[in-house]
Structures are given as C-alpha cells and as structure tokens.
Amino acid sequence: MLAVLHTWTQQLNLHPHVHCLVSGGGISGDATTWHPARRNFLLPNKALAKLVRGKFCALLRSKRPDLVLPDAAWRKNWILHVSTRGNGEPAVLDYLARYVFRVALTNARIVALDDATVSIQYKHRKTGSVRICRLSGHEFMRRFLQHVLPRGFHKVRYFGLWHPSQRHNAARVRQMLQLQAPPKADPTPPPAVAPFEPGTEPMPPLEPRICPHCQHGRLIFIRRLTPRQAMAP
User: Would residue 84 count as lying in a domain?
Assistant: First the structure.
C-alpha cells in the first residue's frame, strides 16, 4: 500500500485525509505465487469504515488521553471509498500525480487580487458548479500555511510489498505478472517455415508460447550465447 496525506479542500480549509493506492492482490508467504483479488472487489466498504473508525478511536485514546471528543464522532458513519484505478504503471502515475506533486492552491485558481483581499475559484462539491471565494489577505495566508507540512514530515509512506525493504519481492511480483499476462498479438505475419530435409530436425520457433521446462511461463528468444560469452558476467 502507498498512502498520501491530503489536508485541504477546494476552499483551503483544513480537511486531513489519506489517499491510499493498494495493489490488487498479494504475494504468498513463500514469495512464489501471486494471488489476485476478486474481480471488481478488494475490500468491503462498510466493514472497513467501521474498522478504521474503531482503530482510530483506540489509537487516539492511547496517544492523547487528554483529548475528549464527543461520542457522536464515534457513532457517526465514517466515509470510505474504494474503487479501481486501472492497470499498470500509467494508471498509478496518473493517480499519484494529482496528490503527490500538487500544492494546496495553483496560480490558475487565483482569479482576483488587491491590497486587502484574494479571490480564489473553487468547485462546489455537491453541484459541481464553479464558485468564487473571497478572503482577506490574513485569512488567505492562514488557510494556505496550515497545509505546509512540518520539516521532516513524510507526506508519502509505503507499506507492505511497496516498502523499500521488500524490493526483492516486488521484483518477483512484476516478473510473475509479466509471465501471466496474455501474449500480445503480433501485427506481422509469422515467417514461413523453411523446408527441411528428411532425417534432420526442423528449426524450433524463435518465440515458443510456453516454456518447455515449467510449462507455464513464456519463453522469448533474445540471442544465443557462445561458450565464451556464457562465461562472461
């Protein structure tokens, strides 16, 4: 899992929440098998929302027993959303670019500026309409600076298979997924098989679809090594 902290709303109000990118499956304990999640399903939203609320409540009480929050905060339904974000590296980069490399406010959303006020453009969440929020200079700076993270604070954190200590297993997973991927259609027609004389063996194809040893993976011919080349590092 990869977690990104997001602290602002369209009007720069403080709204801390976390966006998590979770792999659609997991690796076995012996790191030899990839177990994909069920189609269009990863986790039950309602059950996970209750679990997150309970874990957060227990952790807050253990770390900050001096803070007393209203009981209504723990009875209210917490909002949790789980959805698919596509497959492969492009889907991951497209999702993360919106949260990792973006600040609370871009210059394009500042529509007016004078000696006393700043007007910013935002999208109303329920209606989707574009509206204008006019703030005093002091209030604008207060809202913007509350989203500047403390020095040394990690905005992005990695867990499980994506943690740096698990790079070797992540590489194994990539290899497994590449072997399980269906072969891409070859746009060029296959070359004609050259005739062979009786008593000789036909030339094997350069890219057999199935590995002759494990009968699962795809064997792709790159080049043939001579005995001298095989001894090289």
Answer: yes
Helix (H) or strand (E) holding 58: helix 45-63
In angstroms, rounded to a whole number, what is the distance separating the alpha carbons of residues 73 and 57? 9
Report the predicted TM-score, pTM, of the whole model to 2 decimal places.
0.65
Q: Containing domain of residue 112, as a range?
A: 106-146
Q: Which 3 state secondary structure label does DSSP give 172?
A: helix
Instruction: Assess whether 43 and 121 both reside in one domain.
Output: no
Residue 95 covered by a domain: yes
C-alpha 46/C-alpha 178 separation (Å) is 34
Co-location of 171 and 58 in the same domain:
yes
pLDDT in tens, 23-68: 888 888 888 888 888 877 778 888 989 999 999 999 999 999 999 8
What is the per-residue pLDDT across 150-180, written as a single tens digit (0 to 9) for each?
Answer: 999 989 999 988 898 988 888 888 888 777 6
